[in-house]
Amino acid sequence: MGSSVWPQCLERLANELTPQQFNTWIRPLHAVEEGAALRLLAPNQFVLDWVRERFTPLINGILSTCNTENPHQLIFEIGSAAAVHPRGRGDIAATGLTRAVTGTAVRVASPKKGFLRKELHADIDHFSNLRREFTFDTFVAGKSNQLARAASIQIAENPGGAYNPLFIYGGVGLGKTHLMHAVGNLFVQRNPATKVVYLHSEQFVGDMVKALQHNTIDEFKRYYRSVDSLLIDDIQFFAGKDRSQEEFFHTFNYLMEGQRQIIMTCDRYPKEVNGLEERLKSRFGWGLTVHIEPPELETRVAILMNKAEQMECTLPNEIAFFIAKRIRSNVRELEGALRRVLANARFTGKPLTLDFAKEALRDLLALQDRLVTIENIQKTVAEYYKIRVVDLLSERRTRSLARPRQLAMALSKELTKHSLPEIGSAFGGRDHTTVLHAHRKIAQLRESDKHISEDYSNLLRTLST
Amino acid sequence: MTATITSPSAIAQLPLTIGLRDDCRFDNYFVADNREAVAALQQHAPEPPSASTQSDTALYLWGSAGTGKTHLLQAACHHAAMLGSGLDSSRATAVAYLPLAQASMQADQLDPAMLEGLEYLALICIDDIQAIAGQPEWETALFHLYNRIRLTGTRCIIAGNSSPHGVGLHMPDLVSRLCWGQVLHLNALDDEAVIAALQLRARHRGLELSEEVARFLWRHYPRDMTSLFALLERLDRDSLAAQRKLTIPFVKTFMQADRQALTQGA
User: In this complex, which of B39, B121, B177 lies closest to A43 when CB atoms are compared?
Assistant: First the structure.
């Protein structure tokens, strides 16, 4: 039920408060009128406390003038309007355990009310949180992600089998989450009754904290232990949260024993996550661990073409190559740049040409150019190899210095517009042929030496992010 | 003959506290070269996004101080709150505007816990992201909020004084997410546009500000929009109290009184 008195309050409050106070503290409230009570739902405890402490007399004053005989009784609670837009399979009304939609408002995590409205019986409703658009069809395969993709397809066809758990790690915006959803979507497609839950590790932690607060830890355990597949994103956020790790450890063991599929993503190799218990790290490595690297040029072009097609646009090849050459760090930024060009074209009604794309991305690319300087490359490479910049520029030719120097020169040629003599000069007055040689040498080593190839990719990612 | 200077502020008659408020709306924003950004913000209204625009859940707006980011964010809040309600505020949608700069909010008002549960609102506008850049707790809280709004479909506009890469954030996961949706740049106004914007603001306050007076103010005072708008507000108040029109002699009197007040204060 909505409120008829609240609009009058809003009008008066808008006049009494500054626009900022009104927009920050009053507009997030959702009002529900229940008989003589006016229930104000705040999105969180912080807003609730703030409004209650500072604005109660003002709101009560307004309420008493609206209805002089029987002024409404003001009740504050945590909750929000149900006007949210569920995602995924259509069964997602909220992100998991903590919310349950009823009527016009969602009340959540109120210490007085208890955080679970839903009765948790043996047949628990699971919110999958899966995003329909993340499928294998929309995932662009390339050299950088082929292993992760192949493993994911294997798992989708044979859940709970040999590749359990699947641990996908890699830098930001490279498609880890996409792959995870793609597996989940395929599970659901093949067996609509299967219980798949995707969640971010923060949600697991948040749900557990609420369960502890409201003494509903048993329901929490039952919820996560009754899934057929658990897809958990960014597990590095478990670091330092001992109680959550403990609970996740038991959930993990329980699911593994029942041969239920677990997929996890992380921004680094499990052993490298600080603040994670050793027993968890070792378990994460039980199944298959796969790495996703930044996509190479051809894959970046394919990603752009694919994305443009999804947006129902025809992207000229030369624009796709232009964007892909300039933005190398991750897929999100690639998509962001494409979105910018397409939005610009739609707004101005101009045809998509290379010059138009350059103009639309001028700010973005100018900023990147400013960030990547020879000096910055030298500093980053020196830090990476734990050597000093002066050594990088020195005459010394020991292998431990020559390789990083060659890498830095190759990166300078690749990432900046400086001439070869300028690059040579910036590296202790070397000749431009030395720069060319370094570039060729590194290209050759990247093919034959896995370590050099990995170093190059890591440095490239660091410098172009 | 020497004219006697009387501070308009010192004139006995007090202005009434009613006047037109400087409410932030799209229609009283001086658009100039920022048509595309304003159009994108207006279209960034809360509605179920289609499959092809899912990543547009969040939009990033950046520009230097005085380009009107705060104005536009508050305008977006108002627009979204009223949208679908047919201007009937009983059906107004819950939205939030969060200014993160210390200057905008007292220190004790700032807490990452403010971001909890916001994913169930229709629109979230976060201003001055640079104010919390480099603070791990805030960056992590924003990162988590971003992930949550991707699930609920809540629209979000984040504003900063620089692009996502240049704003000083340490968390690459957050930066890449901010680059995912549309990134809009607000161009600063050129000199002529500043004068026109000042006149537009005066008009919305019900104040007549001739081009001549506007140019005079622009020549003699700090030329950023924030200072000029604050100046206009004071002039509005004082001219109302003095029951005088905004003319160059009046402004000169005002300036002199200002200087005197400064000298006495020192």
Answer: B121
